[in-house]
Amino acid sequence: MDGDTGRTTGGPASPPGPADSSGSAGSSGPAGSTGGGAAAALTGLTAAAREGWAAENRAAAQRLVACYALLQECWREYGHGIDGSHEARPGHAVVDGLVAAAGYVVAAMSISARRAEKMLSFSWELHTRYPAILEAMAAGLMEQRVAELLARQMSTVRGDVLEQIQRQVVEDYLGGVAAGIRLGDKALRDEIDAVIGRHDPDAIRLRKEDASRTRGVRIGKGVDGMSTVSALLATEEAAVLAEALDQRVADPDTDPDAPTEPEPHYSKAERRADALMSLICGDTPTQPNTTPGNTDTDGDAGPGGPSAPTGRSGNGGGQAPVLRPKVTVIATGDNGRDEHGARVEFTRTGEAALQTLLEMLATSDGASFEQVDPRIGAADDTSAALKYRPGAELARRVRLRDGTCRHPGCAVPADDCDLDHVVPFNHADPAGGGHTVEANLVSQCRRHHRFKTFSDWTYQLQPDGTLIVTTPDGTTMLTRPDGPLAQYRREHQRDEADAWARQQRRNPAPVFGAGILDEATYFARRAQRLARERARATARNTTDAGTTPTEPTADTTPGPDSISATRERKTPAAASRWWQRNKPTDSALEKAILHALHAHLDELLQPPPPF
């Protein structure tokens, strides 16, 4: 199961052979006892790992049994029985029980809605089509990944022979595992197809026809400035594409059979990515004097022979496609609010750095720019709020805010979603509530839009776009928007919070005497200094008031000691320190300002003549 394409025997489940027995018997003494202890420890650890694997398989079977019971209950609750006998409630559309059950699974397990629906669908298949696979999982002998592989291979088998085929497939697999046979995924699929071919040959053909309808190319937003482009192609199509990429990766000036030294920090995967871009988008001219369609065929082309066209074309000829990417710039237009920089977002692939955008524009034929004001409710209009359908600008802002469907666990892109009023729009009295504004609109895929409208779940939208969903049993789930507009708002909010924290460290509440501030400004230091001087003056006055002065007698003259004692109370050390209070503060910013003023003082006082 570890990706091997062949069949191997032995492994942890194989009994020791004669050589192993003789080796164990021949060992004696301390070394033999040490080896025996290590072997016993390995045996115990292996047994513990296998027991954990079996317990995990049993737990997976138990989870699937519970999911099937939940699915049946949701089908009965939402008016769509398994046999189709139930009708929808009056005034309500039929709600798919699978969507409702997936919502409960997402709330219980914190997984995506797609994974929850796949789990529920697989549980239904195990109970209705593949009970033998479920029995093997419940016994702890088969993991869920292998069970899904077996079910996928037998998905098109006729019902009259399905029981016989699945029993034989499961018995062959479990017998091979017990005998120490370890098959890779490809070898296991071949073994299953061999069994299917003996009983229902048309099933393999139907499965391949169904697989051919799943081909396509998908583009998804990634992380860290990267995106994913996945292609599911027919085998012959993938072979042709791989050959074309390998030809682009290979250097035409070198012998393909000669061993080449790989370039460091430039892997083969990176070279294929560049080759793919070259095939689809073409290449830019590498020489300034060479243009598409203007090739030099004279003998002076150089030692390599005539030069090839260097225009932007995928196959060396023809016109290259016009590249005009769509770029969204999120900024208010106010330099004060945008001091931390605007956000550059490609419409289909995600955020990019400004330098990357400039480099891309240098090699493209321009771009379509869209500026979005990030302030909440910037596109709201009082007259448009009373209309059911939102305007183009408002719809674009809501989708940029949400990013995906806002139902818990759903990841359908917002561009493929409907816009739903969280508080239902009042068609009879539009002014009565449910206005068409940003604070009342969310992106919902069609399935979850219908589910929200006709189910008994409650939804509440916060001003920042946070959606609170409450199930009938009281479970509360919360989803936050993850679109580029919401991310920009969160970053801006964090920047403002950090700026406020720094301001509080510089100018805290006026509680003096609490110690030296972390980043004290001139005014804070001045206030602390004045407070200390007032405290010293108050203490000195209190001391002087508690001392009774003695009147000098006629024959008593002040001596030098009394004069010095009297003057000690008036020294700058005991009284106010004018110099300490008025000397320049040690501030680098103030020094820089004074230096600039002195440098340009003559120009300020006597400006030069206008000519």
Describe the structure.
This protein is of the alpha+beta class and 611 residues long. The chain is 47% helix and 9% strand. The chain has 20 helices and 13 strands. The strands form five sheets. A four-stranded mixed β-sheet has the order 7-6-5-8, with helices on one face. The protein has a three-stranded antiparallel β-sheet with strand order 11-12-13, with no helix packed on it. The protein starts with 6 loop residues before the first strand and ends in a 6-residue tail after the last helix.
From the alpha carbons, calculate the radius of gyration and give it in angstroms: 39 Å
* Residue share in helix: 40-55%
Strand order of the largest sheet: 7-6-5-8
Class computed from helices, strands and strand pairing = alpha+beta
Count every beta strand, where a strand is a DSSP E run of 2 or more residues: 13
Strand content: 5-15%
| Structure annotation, total helices | 20
Mean pLDDT: 76
General shape: extended
Uncertain residue segments:
1-28, 81-85, 286-319, 562-579
Largest sheet: 4 strands, mixed
> End-to-end distance, in Å?
87 Å
Task: Briefly summarize what is shown.
The chain is built from 20 helices and 13 strands. The protein is of the alpha+beta class and 611 residues long.
Write the layout of secondary structure elements.
Layout: E1 7-8, H1 18-26, H2 29-77, H3 97-109, H4 113-128, H5 131-138, H6 144-153, H7 159-178, E2 182-183, H8 185-199, H9 201-212, E3 216-221, E4 227-232, H10 235-249, H11 268-281, E5 326-330, E6 343-346, E7 350-351, H12 354-363, E8 368-372, H13 392-402, E9 418-421, E10 441-444, H14 446-454, E11 458-461, E12 467-470, E13 476-479, H15 484-506, H16 522-545, H17 560-568, H18 578-582, H19 588-599, H20 601-605
Parallel strand pairs: 5-8
Antiparallel strand pairs: 1-2, 3-4, 5-6, 6-7, 9-10, 11-12, 12-13
Helix pairs in contact: 2-3, 2-4, 2-5, 3-4, 7-8, 8-9, 10-11, 13-15
